[in-house]
Automatic annotation (TrEMBL):
Source organism of the structure: Glycomyces terrestris
Transmembrane segments: 30-51, 71-93, 123-144, 164-182, 194-215, 227-250, 271-292, 312-337, 358-382, 388-408, 420-438, 444-465
Membrane disposition: Multi-pass membrane protein
Stretches the record annotates as Disordered: 1-23
Gene name per UniProt: kup
Protein name (record): Probable potassium transport system protein Kup
Keyword Membrane: yes
Gene Ontology annotations for the cellular component aspect, listed alphabetically: plasma membrane
Amino acid sequence: MTAQTSEGRTDRKPVAAPPRHPRRGGPLRLALVVGALGVVYGDIGTSPIYALQTIFNPADPHPVPVSTANVYGIVSLIFWSVTIIVTVFYVGFAMRADNDGEGGIMALITLIRRHAAGRGRKTALVLAALGIFGAALFLGDSMITPAISVLSAVEGIKTVSTGLESFIIPVTAVIIILLFAFQKHGTHVIGRWFGPIMIVWFSTLALLGIGGIAGNPEILRALSPTYALDFVFGNFGTAFFALAAVILAFTGAEALYADMGHFGRKPISRAWILIVFPSVMLNYMGQGALILQDTANVSGSFFLLAPEALRIPLLLLTTVATVIAAQAVISGAFSVAAQASELGYLPRLRIAHTSEHWYGQIYVPWINWLLMASVLVLVFAFRTSEALAFAYGMAVIATIVIVVLLFLYVARMRWNAPRWLLATGGSLLVAITGTFLAASSTKIVHGAWLPLLIGLLAFTVMITWQKGREVVTGERERREGSLREFVDRLREGEPKVARVPGTAVFLDRGKHSAPLAMRSNLEQNHARHAQIVILSVETEPVPRVAEAERLEVDQLGDDRDAVIHVTARFGYMETPDVPRALEAIEAEQAEGRRLNLDRATYFLSTIQLKPGRAKTMATWRKHLFIATSHITADAAEHFRLPRDRTMIIGSHIEV
């Protein structure tokens, strides 16, 4: 804690801060790897169900003819695309650009904002805006992934009996509802159950793949990059359009990064290298071998790898695995939304931390139910995984391209990476991912418009909230006036008010303005408490703040005034428990002026918004900002204030 006197002197008393993460050794490390399998890798681990089938789908607007050369080329292209984008870029590089253990686009944005202060500001602002759009696209991906994953699995019913097709949509809807209803129990519980199932799943992928390869070992030649290069440059027209479907092989790559705060970099990396990557590649090879044996196997190539007697058990396992696939992006969406909220791009959301040991494991109810409703709408609107596949790749690859650009900027700022190295490696990454993005854009009229529309809507909400928040904050500060001047007036007896016993805690946004609630209380009730605490809660661009740096106390007046200002700092992944944080001040106060917080009264200022004539934003954006404000979480609950001792005083502000 930092205690700052009115003369500006700062006294620091070291306080032992708790460890940021639990020790990860032995059984705990293994449990994190298993948990990562259950939460992080469901999406990319279930891509073999539909990726090859979609690439060779004759109903595609730009179908890839089934031929020996094309099968070798596609399998090779999948292998090397996943290797470069997931293994090399995400696991090898991007996941090292963490913000104190947290990953994903929002972590990159905070790193850019922090390191670019005072230099390269314009570039940083452009990249931050681009990153917000990427985060919005990821939220769109979080809606499409559960729909296409569960649909593709339940559609396996058709390989058992065509008479069961009418049950596909109802069964899919029930599974999705159950999945989202279970989110409140937390990712650690979900991972505990899903992890062992995914071990069985990846083992099954590998065994099915090995069985297919055994029928035609020649498919192993596709490991050579020459087949991918021959396919791309030998028939660029066909290959270019095929890239839009090849993207399906690495959907879920961003979830690895976004979910890093749930399990840590090492468990996620080890699970990928040792289990996930070999398993999915063996399965793609096996499917390629099966298609080479008989081109009719293209339709349902994944399920046809299994003997007929085992297809029903495989169907059940696949259904469970795709439910788990949805979990990867749902967990990532919780992390992205929570970070966006704390950084001022979304309203304050109610966030439940679901693990005592891992700070990044959270549940965001509002986002959960929004995603569930959106996923159900997509299922009933598109009705087949093939129809959704056209829309799927755009959100994925656009997010990846943005992550690549942000990462290159962070690599230069944070690690001072040589320019020649960034130019060489960065150009290659941008060229590869940019080509995939260009190919995916050919599907815009066939459904790829959907994730772009979702992303654009989410992006508009985010930047509108950020702008509206700035407008409201500026107007509040104008009305509140100087805090120092207000305290000086109190000392001089203006306005004349009675002093009543007790402690009042007024929550405010800064230390320079007087809280609206305090002004209204004095003007309307003509009374003040014997002790006054003005509290500002700041969210730092780091996940957690050490206890030694938690509080800063400024003695605004002399002992007679008994008015202090407290700045309480929390990381954006922490729960701001105000009463608990203030306990440290109680211990610091000298006898005779010690704060009495046992029965302290907490005052909150609430703002009623309405559109005004000032040209701060377009009229439609003003209405959007006001509508978005209605989802703001209750401040008393957010700051853990005691309900029976909290008073709310309202004011009107025009935007």
